[in-house]
Design a protein that fits this description.
The chain starts with a strand and ends in an 8-residue tail after the last helix. It has 9 helices and 10 strands. Strands 6-7-8-3-9-10 form a 6-stranded mixed β-sheet, with helices on both faces. The protein is globular and about 55 Å long. The chain is of the alpha/beta class and about 260 residues long. It binds adenosine-5'-triphosphate. Adenosine-5'-triphosphate (ATP) binds next to strand 1, strand 2 and helix 1.
Length: about 260
């Protein structure tokens, strides 16, 4: 199964007549079927990390590897979900979900089966013929997630996928994603501003420093989640009330707010 590796990654951008070091010495591994969330201050380079894993940007030092291969360009084995749902407005839910399957040369009967499965998986039954503009933001993001899950990619890269949703819809989507990824684990790199979201969703949370962004700490959530039985709780608010959850959240917040030796200005 897939792994994502950041090996001593650096990214410097030219801004006007000066070089800005956005990322320096980023080392990180996402294991097979592991869900890793990155949190960090605004501008610390989270999106840049994601873009490099997607092959949309290149490091200026070090390398990003997926399954031991250096990433040099986008590829179907690395699916990306952005904050903006990026659905085709002129295609129905069914056709949006099925779009990527055409390019993979999958037979029609198999395509139909997979689309139907993923419509059921994301609770989109009855909306097969709807167009994106007829759906709420949450429903559109379900379609966007179904559209990448159906391709069975090696890795899923999610950049603030719920950032544009209202608070209530966001909670529902977080619960759905937990349900989906616990039942059908994938290798996921997930970027978010929201500490609670990271602790709720991820197996490990990576805390980044201010610019130049680097990994400040990596916090294992999964052992706590399993020991404390969070998965038996269906509602996010019940999980968030657990003392173990509150402790982890506080620990991450503290790291985000306190200056870091290397990152301190
Ligand atoms: N194409 C670019 N050209 C110049 N500078 C860039 C470019 N892309 C990113 N940067 C700079 O790199 C730094 C990291 O940006 P990035 O968008 O990765 O941060 P982020 O952590 O995702 O921020 P936010 O949380 O606010 O979305 C920022 O200082 C940004 O200005």
């Amino acid at each position: 199964m897939a792994t994502i590796q950041f090996n001593d990654v650096e990214r410097t951008f030219r801004q006007g007549n000066r070089d800005v070091v956005a990322l320096r010495g980023v080392n990180l591994q996402v294991g097979a079927r592991e869900f890793v969330a990155i949190v960090g201050p605004s501008g610390c380079g989270k999106t840049t990390c994601m873009r490099m894993a997607a092959g949309l940007d290149q490091p200026t030092g070090g390398c990003v590897m997926v399954d031991s291969e250096v990433v040099t360009r986008p590829g179907p084995e690395r699916a990306v979900v952005f904050q903006q749902f990026a659905l085709f407005p002129w295609k129905t839910v069914w056709d949006n979900i099925g779009f990527g399957l055409h390019g993979l040369g999958i037979a029609a009967a198999e395509r139909t089966k997979r689309i139907r499965q993923h419509i059921a998986l994301m609770g989109l039954e009855g909306y097969e013929k709807a167009f994106p503009h007829q759906l709420s933001g949450g429903m559109q993001q379900r379609v966007a997630i179904a559209r990448v899950y159906v391709l069975d990619p090696k890795v899923l890269l999610m950049d603030e996928p719920f950032g544009a949703l209202d608070a209530q819809t966001r909670v529902v989507m977080q619960e759905e994603l937990v349900r989906l990824t616990r039942r059908h684990p994938r290798t996921v790199l997930f970027i978010t501003h929201a500490v609670e979201e990271a602790v709720y969703l991820a197996d490990r949370v990576v805390v980044m420093t201010r610019r130049p962004g680097t990994v400040r700490d990596i916090i294992a959530i999964k052992p706590v989640r399993e020991a404390e039985g969070w998965d038996a709780l269906t509602r996010i608010e019940d999980v968030m009330e657990q003392p173990s959850f509150v402790q982890l959240r506080a620990r991450i917040w503290k790291q985000l707010r306190e200056p870091h030796d290397r990152g301190a200005h």
